[in-house]
Amino acid sequence: MKVSIERSALLKAMGRAQGVVERRTTIPILSNVLIEAEGAEIAFRATDLDIEVLDRTPAVVERAGATTVGAHTLHEIVRKLPDGAMVELQDDGTAGRLEVRAGRSQFSLATLPKEDFPVMASSEYSCTFTCPAPVLRRLFDKAKFAISTEETRYYLNGVYMHVAEADGGRRLRCVATDGHRLARIDAEVPPGAEAAPGVIVPRKTVGELRKLLDDDEAEITVSVSETKIRFATPEVSLTSKVIDGSFPDYTRVIPQGNTKRLEVDAAEFAQAVDRVSTVSSEKSRAVKLSLEEDRLTLSVNAPDSGAATEELAVAYADEPLDIGFNAKYLQEIASQIDRENAVFMFNSMNDPTLVREGDDESAVYVVMPMRV
């Protein structure tokens, strides 16, 4: 194999590949990226046996061939090369070495046989549809903060993507929850997606998917089966196993009868929570919201470190209410809100609180209160 490729294109491809590769693995070949050169392009394939990314990039191929090399090492080398450099990758197929040359820099990297590299079995997808990148980006970005990190409740360790019945028709919906907060984000159902099975997309896959969704003009082809999901553009495909489990009935958690309405500037609210929580103890991070007519008082009382209060002018016309929340949860929800105002719907100090972006019901958040 002998290939020349521009440094920025190689860095982008290796950035995607090394994101999938685990830094610590007991199977040496899984630390490597499979490089295949043929025709006028070079393909980079990386996997951890649950996720596989395949990236095709135009290149000058003088001699076709394939090999595998350490993904993190090659990524670090390319990252440190000067901008605009042409990188030459060459191996003779026998010495077990890949030569990397750029200008006056030269590296010789150990390789492993390409035959040992595991390729994820292709799946029969029951549904395939196309969705604009900004739509998918919004669905996953706004939901992912609520993904659980508790390994025992593995079915909550991802984003549940499915087609749901909603007022006004069907919606493509992403939901995530960890039992303390919940995010439910809706979008129009893309043509052909109506029959898509509901799947739980793992946390790591959601993180890697973000790299595919940066281009606002991109159209993403989504293929779904009961066991796998694939997101693809003409250059890149990300294939992942889905979490084998049933997502709980989240609709029972979303309160329907909350009538006490608070409207507040989302950015001001997030900043105020951040300021007062500075003095809170790390364990609880509790912040108390005291509501009176058109006034919200945020307060923290931590016996070990001090106390803080801050007042905000808000729109509120119901009876006074005191309610406590984890400060981190409030900040994370407030940071998702794109519109100027956040709307909080309360019932009592012990019941879940509903949060929306103004009057937009396509993004709904639920947060459980805590004692303060």
From TrEMBL:
It comes from the Bacteria. The keyword Nucleotidyltransferase applies. GO terms for molecular function: 3'-5' exonuclease activity; DNA binding; DNA-directed DNA polymerase activity. Residues 1-120 form the DNA polymerase III beta sliding clamp N-terminal domain. It is found in: Cytoplasm. Pfam families: DNA_pol3_beta (PF00712), DNA_pol3_beta_2 (PF02767), DNA_pol3_beta_3 (PF02768). GO terms for cellular component: cytoplasm; DNA polymerase III complex. Keywords: Cytoplasm, DNA replication, DNA-binding, DNA-directed DNA polymerase, Nucleotidyltransferase, Transferase. Residues 252-371 form the DNA polymerase III beta sliding clamp C-terminal domain. GO terms for biological process: DNA strand elongation involved in DNA replication. Coiled coil: none annotated. Transmembrane segments: none annotated. Residues 134-249 form the DNA polymerase III beta sliding clamp central domain. SUPFAM superfamilies: DNA clamp. Belongs to the beta sliding clamp family. Forms a ring-shaped head-to-tail homodimer around DNA. Confers DNA tethering and processivity to DNA polymerases and other proteins. Acts as a clamp, forming a ring around DNA (a reaction catalyzed by the clamp-loading complex) which diffuses in an ATP-independent manner freely and bidirectionally along dsDNA. Initially characterized for its ability to contact the catalytic subunit of DNA polymerase III (Pol III), a complex, multichain enzyme responsible for most of the replicative synthesis in bacteria; Pol III exhibits 3'-5' exonuclease proofreading activity. This is Beta sliding clamp.
